[in-house]
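Onboarding guide, step 5: your first structure request.
Type a short instruction followed by the sequence, for example:

Predict the 3D structure of this protein.
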Amino acid sequence: MRTSILLMAILFAGCAGNQAQAPAPEPQSLQVISLQNSSETTYTDYPASIQGTVDLEIRPQVSGILDQILVNEGAQVQKGQPLFKINERPFREALNNAKALLHVAQAAVINAQIEVDKLTPLVKNKVVSEFQLKTATATYQSTQAGVEQAKAAVAAAEINLGYTLIKAPVAGNVGRLPKKQGSIISPTDAVALTTLSDSHEVHVYFSLGEDDFVAFNAKYPGSTTAERLKKLPGVSLVLADNSVYGEQGKVDMVDGQFDKQTGSISLRATFANKQGLLRSGNTGKIRLSLQHPDAILIPQSSTVEVQDKMFVFLVGDSNKVSRQPIAIQGTSGENYLVKDGLKSGDRIVYEGIDKLKDGDVIKPEKLKEEPVKTAKR
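The system replies with structure tokens like these:
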């Protein structure tokens, strides 16, 4: 009996010894990156609308019947090129009538002058009273005023006749043509004859909120808005298909006040459009760039967000990791630009951070490939 108890005690002691001597788990292998300062560019995109340098509604100056449409929709026209022809017959007859009234007025002047010439010697010889001469002189002056009035009527009739041929006030592209030949048109029509857009350059309008505008003024040097605009680098235009327009533009206008309803302020960038790729009414995004000459960039995949705060896992001595809070000041592609919390030479875990907690020990591995950097917001 004693022998059995002794054997069991030895057996239990052996099992306990085996448990105490069990090997510790191997630290997990994770890729680690070493941070270095570099020169980086961050981008911010703002929704934008595109307008030609000149966008006009073409409307008639006189009422009448639309006789001819001399252009096609979408056509490129030059300044002074005829666009529409209104039936001119009523206006030509009005001009002829005005000219006839001018001749009547001129004849009245001649008659009045004859009367003055006749009475002048008679007054000198005291044949007729001076009152009659004064009356004749007043009549003469009145007929001269009638001539001036008739000349003005002729000029007005000529202007109205000229308005029957509607010409392009600027070079540009013709819009749609809602009116058809034979339509009765008027200056008071709700719909214009067409629109004309001069798009050899385009204005691209975008807006900044109050916070962004304060940051805009802080980022770019200059004591006044005009000075900042001169030193502002070129901006890019991202088109609706997310391609970047081939020409860079220049911000050349900041609105004088904020919109009370939206709380934003408008800015304008001008782009060359020699090939006519951009048209009024296009939309896109203005991309503003900002240079960071001494920046630290980390992949977004290396971060974790907890209660609106951003963290990375910093690799310290003995390869022990600790959760490090960081501040972000911008993005560059798939990467974050770090404002505070990290410095050059620090090592952080590249990926697999969802498996970590403070104090874990890891087996660092060299990064297999560099994260791709692309320029987008």
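Each response can be followed by summary notes, for example: Residues 371-377 have pLDDT under 50 and may be disordered.
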